[in-house]
Protein backbone atom coordinates (compact mmCIF):
# COMPACT_ATOMS: atom_id res chain seq x y z
CA UNK A 1 0.00 0.00 0.00
CA UNK A 2 2.88 2.45 0.73
CA UNK A 3 4.53 2.12 -2.67
CA UNK A 4 1.67 3.65 -4.72
CA UNK A 5 1.53 6.54 -2.27
CA UNK A 6 5.20 7.36 -2.88
CA UNK A 7 4.62 7.07 -6.57
CA UNK A 8 1.75 9.46 -6.36
CA UNK A 9 3.86 11.90 -4.34
CA UNK A 10 6.68 11.76 -6.85
CA UNK A 11 4.26 12.23 -9.67
CA UNK A 12 2.78 15.32 -8.01
CA UNK A 13 6.22 16.71 -7.33
CA UNK A 14 7.22 16.35 -10.96
CA UNK A 15 4.01 18.06 -12.05
CA UNK A 16 4.69 21.00 -9.75
CA UNK A 17 8.28 21.26 -10.99
CA UNK A 18 7.12 21.11 -14.61
CA UNK A 19 4.55 23.85 -13.99
CA UNK A 20 7.12 26.02 -12.21
CA UNK A 21 9.61 25.53 -15.03
CA UNK A 22 6.93 26.38 -17.57
CA UNK A 23 6.05 29.59 -15.68
CA UNK A 24 9.72 30.59 -15.46
CA UNK A 25 10.22 29.92 -19.13
CA UNK A 26 7.09 31.85 -20.03
CA UNK A 27 8.23 34.85 -17.87
CA UNK A 28 11.65 34.76 -19.47
CA UNK A 29 10.14 34.79 -22.94
CA UNK A 30 7.87 37.70 -22.00
CA UNK A 31 10.81 39.68 -20.66
CA UNK A 32 12.79 38.99 -23.82
CA UNK A 33 9.85 40.17 -25.85
CA UNK A 34 9.57 43.41 -23.85
CA UNK A 35 13.29 44.01 -24.13
CA UNK A 36 13.23 43.41 -27.85
CA UNK A 37 10.42 45.98 -28.16
CA UNK A 38 12.08 48.56 -25.86
CA UNK A 39 15.38 48.57 -27.73
CA UNK A 40 14.02 50.17 -30.95
CA UNK A 41 12.06 52.72 -28.89
CA UNK A 42 15.21 53.69 -27.02
CA UNK A 43 17.08 53.96 -30.29
CA UNK A 44 14.36 56.17 -31.79
CA UNK A 45 14.34 58.37 -28.68
CA UNK A 46 18.11 58.65 -28.77
CA UNK A 47 18.03 59.60 -32.45
CA UNK A 48 15.36 62.22 -31.72
CA UNK A 49 17.41 63.75 -28.91
CA UNK A 50 20.51 63.73 -31.10
CA UNK A 51 18.62 65.39 -33.97
CA UNK A 52 17.24 68.02 -31.58
CA UNK A 53 20.72 68.75 -30.28
CA UNK A 54 22.05 69.08 -33.83
CA UNK A 55 19.24 71.50 -34.77
CA UNK A 56 19.78 73.64 -31.66
CA UNK A 57 23.52 73.70 -32.26
CA UNK A 58 23.03 74.64 -35.91
CA UNK A 59 20.68 77.50 -35.00
CA UNK A 60 23.17 78.75 -32.42
CA UNK A 61 26.07 78.63 -34.89
CA UNK A 62 24.00 80.36 -37.60
CA UNK A 63 22.88 83.11 -35.25
CA UNK A 64 26.37 83.59 -33.89
CA UNK A 65 27.87 83.79 -37.39
CA UNK A 66 25.17 86.25 -38.46
CA UNK A 67 25.87 88.50 -35.48
CA UNK A 68 29.61 88.28 -36.10
CA UNK A 69 29.12 89.23 -39.76
CA UNK A 70 26.97 92.18 -38.71
CA UNK A 71 29.59 93.26 -36.18
CA UNK A 72 32.30 92.98 -38.83
CA UNK A 73 30.31 95.13 -41.26
CA UNK A 74 29.68 97.72 -38.54
CA UNK A 75 33.38 97.71 -37.65
CA UNK A 76 34.36 98.23 -41.29
CA UNK A 77 31.84 101.08 -41.56
CA UNK A 78 33.19 102.72 -38.40
CA UNK A 79 36.75 102.44 -39.67
CA UNK A 80 35.73 103.97 -43.00
CA UNK A 81 33.95 106.82 -41.23
CA UNK A 82 36.98 107.48 -39.04
CA UNK A 83 39.26 107.41 -42.07
CA UNK A 84 36.98 109.88 -43.89
CA UNK A 85 36.85 112.14 -40.84
CA UNK A 86 40.63 112.03 -40.55
CA UNK A 87 41.06 112.95 -44.23
CA UNK A 88 38.53 115.77 -43.89
CA UNK A 89 40.30 117.11 -40.81
CA UNK A 90 43.64 116.94 -42.63
CA UNK A 91 42.19 118.91 -45.55
CA UNK A 92 40.71 121.48 -43.18
CA UNK A 93 44.04 121.98 -41.47
CA UNK A 94 45.79 122.40 -44.82
CA UNK A 95 43.19 124.94 -45.97
CA UNK A 96 43.50 126.77 -42.67
CA UNK A 97 47.27 127.01 -43.02
CA UNK A 98 46.95 128.27 -46.58
CA UNK A 99 44.36 130.82 -45.54
CA UNK A 100 46.49 132.05 -42.66
CA UNK A 101 49.30 132.65 -45.13
CA UNK A 102 46.90 134.63 -47.30
CA UNK A 103 45.80 136.66 -44.30
CA UNK A 104 49.40 137.47 -43.49
CA UNK A 105 49.79 138.84 -46.99
CA UNK A 106 46.62 140.93 -47.04
CA UNK A 107 46.39 141.70 -43.34
CA UNK A 108 48.26 144.96 -43.60
CA UNK A 109 45.73 146.67 -45.89
CA UNK A 110 42.54 145.92 -43.94
CA UNK A 111 41.06 144.16 -40.94
CA UNK A 112 40.39 140.42 -40.90
CA UNK A 113 38.14 138.62 -38.40
CA UNK A 114 37.63 134.95 -37.64
CA UNK A 115 34.20 133.62 -36.67
CA UNK A 116 32.52 130.18 -36.92
CA UNK A 117 34.96 128.56 -39.36
CA UNK A 118 35.16 131.63 -41.63
CA UNK A 119 37.48 134.59 -42.11
CA UNK A 120 36.00 138.01 -42.81
CA UNK A 121 37.71 140.87 -44.56
CA UNK A 122 36.46 144.43 -44.04
CA UNK A 123 37.58 146.86 -46.70
CA UNK A 124 38.83 150.34 -45.84
CA UNK A 125 37.73 151.85 -49.15
CA UNK A 126 34.47 152.14 -51.08
CA UNK A 127 33.49 150.63 -54.44
CA UNK A 128 30.38 149.53 -56.32
CA UNK A 129 28.85 146.14 -55.57
CA UNK A 130 30.37 144.52 -58.68
CA UNK A 131 33.83 145.98 -58.07
CA UNK A 132 33.66 144.99 -54.42
CA UNK A 133 32.90 141.41 -55.35
CA UNK A 134 35.81 141.40 -57.81
CA UNK A 135 38.13 142.52 -55.02
CA UNK A 136 36.89 139.65 -52.85
CA UNK A 137 37.51 137.12 -55.61
CA UNK A 138 41.02 138.45 -56.07
CA UNK A 139 41.61 137.43 -52.46
CA UNK A 140 40.19 133.93 -52.92
CA UNK A 141 36.92 134.87 -51.20
CA UNK A 142 33.52 136.34 -52.10
CA UNK A 143 31.06 138.81 -50.67
CA UNK A 144 29.64 137.62 -47.38
CA UNK A 145 26.71 135.20 -47.16
CA UNK A 146 24.80 135.60 -43.90
CA UNK A 147 23.52 132.17 -42.82
CA UNK A 148 21.94 132.78 -39.42
CA UNK A 149 21.13 135.37 -36.77
CA UNK A 150 24.37 134.72 -34.88
CA UNK A 151 26.37 135.63 -37.95
CA UNK A 152 24.15 138.67 -38.59
CA UNK A 153 24.73 139.89 -35.03
CA UNK A 154 28.45 139.35 -35.47
CA UNK A 155 28.46 141.41 -38.69
CA UNK A 156 26.45 144.23 -37.10
CA UNK A 157 28.94 144.30 -34.23
CA UNK A 158 32.12 144.54 -36.31
CA UNK A 159 30.73 147.02 -38.87
CA UNK A 160 29.44 149.52 -36.33
CA UNK A 161 27.42 152.31 -37.97
CA UNK A 162 29.02 151.94 -41.41
CA UNK A 163 27.33 150.34 -44.38
CA UNK A 164 28.97 147.36 -46.08
CA UNK A 165 28.05 145.43 -49.20
CA UNK A 166 26.87 141.85 -48.61
CA UNK A 167 26.64 139.12 -51.25
CA UNK A 168 22.92 139.53 -51.97
CA UNK A 169 21.29 140.80 -55.19
CA UNK A 170 18.15 140.51 -57.32
CA UNK A 171 19.79 141.79 -60.50
CA UNK A 172 18.85 138.68 -62.48
CA UNK A 173 15.15 138.84 -61.58
CA UNK A 174 13.41 141.63 -59.71
CA UNK A 175 12.28 140.50 -56.28
CA UNK A 176 14.13 137.17 -56.51
CA UNK A 177 17.02 137.75 -54.13
CA UNK A 178 19.97 135.38 -54.41
CA UNK A 179 23.30 134.98 -52.69
CA UNK A 180 26.54 135.08 -54.64
CA UNK A 181 26.75 131.25 -54.53
CA UNK A 182 23.44 131.02 -56.42
CA UNK A 183 21.30 129.98 -53.45
CA UNK A 184 17.91 131.65 -53.08
CA UNK A 185 17.25 133.81 -50.02
CA UNK A 186 14.53 132.11 -47.95
CA UNK A 187 14.62 134.31 -44.88
CA UNK A 188 16.66 137.39 -44.14
CA UNK A 189 17.23 140.30 -41.83
CA UNK A 190 15.73 143.17 -43.78
CA UNK A 191 15.41 146.46 -41.93
CA UNK A 192 12.01 147.87 -41.02
CA UNK A 193 10.91 150.86 -39.00
CA UNK A 194 7.42 152.37 -38.97
CA UNK A 195 6.28 152.74 -42.56
CA UNK A 196 9.70 151.80 -43.97
CA UNK A 197 10.11 148.16 -44.89
CA UNK A 198 13.01 146.72 -46.88
CA UNK A 199 13.37 145.74 -49.60
CA UNK A 200 11.17 148.50 -50.91
CA UNK A 201 10.73 147.04 -54.40
CA UNK A 202 12.42 149.79 -56.37
CA UNK A 203 13.74 148.39 -59.64
CA UNK A 204 16.90 150.50 -59.45
CA UNK A 205 17.88 149.10 -56.06
CA UNK A 206 19.15 145.58 -56.70
CA UNK A 207 21.98 145.09 -54.20
CA UNK A 208 22.04 144.89 -50.42
CA UNK A 209 24.07 146.59 -47.71
CA UNK A 210 24.13 145.96 -43.96
CA UNK A 211 22.51 149.32 -43.09
CA UNK A 212 22.90 153.01 -43.88
CA UNK A 213 24.37 155.68 -41.64
CA UNK A 214 21.71 158.13 -42.77
CA UNK A 215 19.03 155.79 -41.40
CA UNK A 216 20.34 154.78 -37.94
CA UNK A 217 16.87 153.65 -36.90
CA UNK A 218 17.01 150.88 -39.48
CA UNK A 219 18.90 147.90 -38.07
CA UNK A 220 19.23 145.36 -40.83
CA UNK A 221 19.67 145.05 -44.60
CA UNK A 222 18.66 147.69 -47.11
CA UNK A 223 18.44 147.46 -50.89
CA UNK A 224 20.32 150.19 -52.72
CA UNK A 225 21.59 150.87 -56.23
CA UNK A 226 24.43 148.51 -57.15
CA UNK A 227 26.49 151.42 -58.54
CA UNK A 228 26.60 153.16 -55.18
CA UNK A 229 29.97 153.26 -53.45
CA UNK A 230 30.20 151.41 -50.14
CA UNK A 231 32.70 149.40 -48.17
CA UNK A 232 32.34 145.64 -48.42
CA UNK A 233 32.79 142.42 -46.47
CA UNK A 234 34.53 139.39 -47.98
CA UNK A 235 34.09 135.92 -46.52
CA UNK A 236 36.37 132.91 -46.86
CA UNK A 237 35.18 129.67 -45.29
CA UNK A 238 37.68 127.05 -44.19
CA UNK A 239 35.06 124.31 -44.46
CA UNK A 240 35.03 122.24 -47.69
CA UNK A 241 32.23 123.01 -50.10
CA UNK A 242 29.80 120.09 -50.55
CA UNK A 243 28.09 119.68 -53.90
UniProtKB/TrEMBL annotation:
It comes from the Eukaryota. This is Hepatic lectin-like. The lineage of its organism: Eukaryota, Metazoa, Chordata, Craniata, Vertebrata.
Amino acid sequence: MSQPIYASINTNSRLKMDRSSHRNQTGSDSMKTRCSRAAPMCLVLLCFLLLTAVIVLSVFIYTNNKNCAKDRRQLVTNISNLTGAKDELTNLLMERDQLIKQLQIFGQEAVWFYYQSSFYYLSNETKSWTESRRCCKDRGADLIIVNNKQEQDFIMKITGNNEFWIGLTDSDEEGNWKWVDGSILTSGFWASSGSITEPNGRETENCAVTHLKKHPELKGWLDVACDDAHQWICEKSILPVTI
